[in-house]
Amino acid sequence: MNKWRKLVKKRFSIAHPDAQTMDLALDFQGRFYYECLKNSSQRYRDEIFDIYFGKIFHTQYQGKKISWGNVMGVEASAKAIDWLFRIQDDFGIAISLTMNQLDIPHEVYRREVIDAFVEWLRGFYDRGLRSCTIGNSHMMNFGILQREFPDMTWKNTVNQMVMNIQMVADAIEMGYTFIQLDRSLNRNMDELKKIKKYVDDYNKNHATNILTCLLVFESCIPFCPFKREHDDIQSFFGGGVYWECLGWSTCETWREHPEYRALPRVGTNCFWNRIETFEEYANLVDVFKYSGRLSTRYPEDHRLQGGIIPRWCFGVEPHFIEEGKFATKELKDNRDIKNAANETVILIDSFADILEQNLEPLRAWSNLWSNSKRVKIPQNLDKFPELVKGHFFTTAEYNELEEVLKNCKNRCCNCHMCEKVYKVPSIDSLIRLARR
Fold first, then answer.
1. What is the C-alpha to C-alpha distance for residues 156 and 134, in angstroms, rounded to an integer?
2. Which of 120-124, 366-370, 379-383 shows the lowest mean pLDDT across its residues?
3. 326 vs 86, 203, 206, 262, 319, CA distance in Å?
4. What is the pTM of this model?
5. Is residue 81 within 8 Å of 46, Cβ to Cβ?
6. How many CB atoms neighbour CB 72 within 10 A?
7. SS3 170
């Protein structure tokens, strides 16, 4: 195994599109997702650490209905979970249950409800589940879950905002064995280095295998003051309700703004464009996580009957490059390709292949699916150098911004480097855009 394949082996934690499975009329219940992985290259599958999905726990306490689940307000259907277990069994890719709702009904702490939750979780454990996100510090601290499910990997939720070395130490003490770090650390490499040393020393001294993870792709502004309320509303009413009633006054404003939507500060994503930057992050944390449980971009299962042979790969849509620097719009256009069978699309089998062949800029590439009945991978790689030549993503000022963002600590009001590079007026707070 060469350097790059080793670096990205079991590197990516990817979301299952739970939202799409909730509408039975859509006929997306997991088979298409399974077939995509089945037809993917082994190199591609080797890069997946796990696939995470959500489910909501329901019970009753003294005649009152109790539910506890996840902040996305969506859950995988029973059929979709069957296909997920098939993925785990057939391809050796771990699946991971997500229970990250922080607005926890107080009845959950009653002994009868805890017992019911344990038995509910045992149903997944007995089927082979060995990974679970639990956004409940008290329940973890009780030690009940660790005793009942000794082989489980326990993840904290990124919403618990583990943002420094002490909070990592506390999370480990509670029993978490997979530490999902706060989004702010995507741009705080100083603290990442301290956490890396602490976890390495802890593992050495205690003969453990604590892993760390960054949520590297999620479109929330740094330190968003609406995030907790957004999550609570969404977990109660469902996945899309927030944007229908309140999102127009918050994130929808800056995500769609003609001047500011492209700025890196509109999200907290890890900003790697050069291979050396990706490698630097990969040497500091173990797993890179991508959001996406609200995604509804997948073709319906019945499309398979039409002869589609889908597979996951990485690709570049020429329009993504040709439209210039408006990265948010470019990313949306690229992500929404329904079938990467167009002859102009550039395709490659795995992220390791991108690294091995030095196919910078990395921001040009997205994860997508291809109909392998019509397309042979790799495709059009010889066209990539000319396509990106002279692009905004390859300029010196863009590379300088990349350097700054590694350790800017999201102090946007005192920096304005994003605005300078994108040549838009400086703004201390993006919230101003929603108040005009």
1. 6
2. 366-370
3. 40, 43, 48, 5, 11
4. 0.95
5. no
6. 22
7. helix
Q: How far apart are CA 76 and CA 231, in angstroms?
A: 18
C-alpha span between 385 and 394 (Å, rounded): 11
Residue for token pair 């066209």: 383
List C-alpha distances in Å: 85 to 74, 255, 305: 19, 35, 22
Pairing, β 57-61 against β 48-54? unpaired
- Side-chain-side CA neighbours of 198 within 13 Å: the count stands at 17
Burial class (CB in 10 A: 0-12, 13-18, 19+), 256: middle
Residue 235 pLDDT > 90, yes or no? no
pLDDT for position 328: 40
Strand, helix or coil for residue 58? strand
Q: Cβ contacts of residue 396 below 8 Å, gap of 6+? A: none
The residue assigned the tokens 């905004």 is 392
Token reading at 427: 């703004």
pLDDT at residue number 238: 75
- For 224, residues 6+ apart whose C-beta sits below 8 A from its C-beta are 230, 250, 251
Q: pLDDT for 156-199, tens place per residue?
A: 999 999 999 999 999 999 999 999 999 999 999 999 999 999 99
DSSP code at position 390 = T
Lookup result for tokens 């603290």 = 191
In angstroms, the CA 230 to CA 135 distance is: 16
Give the per-residue pLDDT at 323. Answer: 54
* Three-state helix/strand/coil letters over 184-249: HHHHCHHHHHHHHHHHHHHHHHHCCCCEEEEEEECCCCCCCCCHHHHHHHHHHHCCCHHHHHCHHH
pLDDT, one tens digit per residue, over 395-421 is 999 999 999 999 999 999 999 999 999
The C-alpha atoms of residue 331 and residue 314 are separated, in whole angstroms, by 13
CB 391 within 8 A of CB 321: yes
Phi-psi region of 193 (alpha: psi -120 to 50; beta: other; left: phi over 0): alpha
Residue that is written with structure tokens 């005009």 in the block = 436
pLDDT tens column, 144-159: 999 999 999 999 999 9
pLDDT of residue 339: 46
Angle between helices 31-39 and 78-91 (to 10 degrees): 20
Task: With H, G, I as helix, E, B as strand and everything else as coil, classify residue 127.
Answer: helix
At 248 the pLDDT is: 87
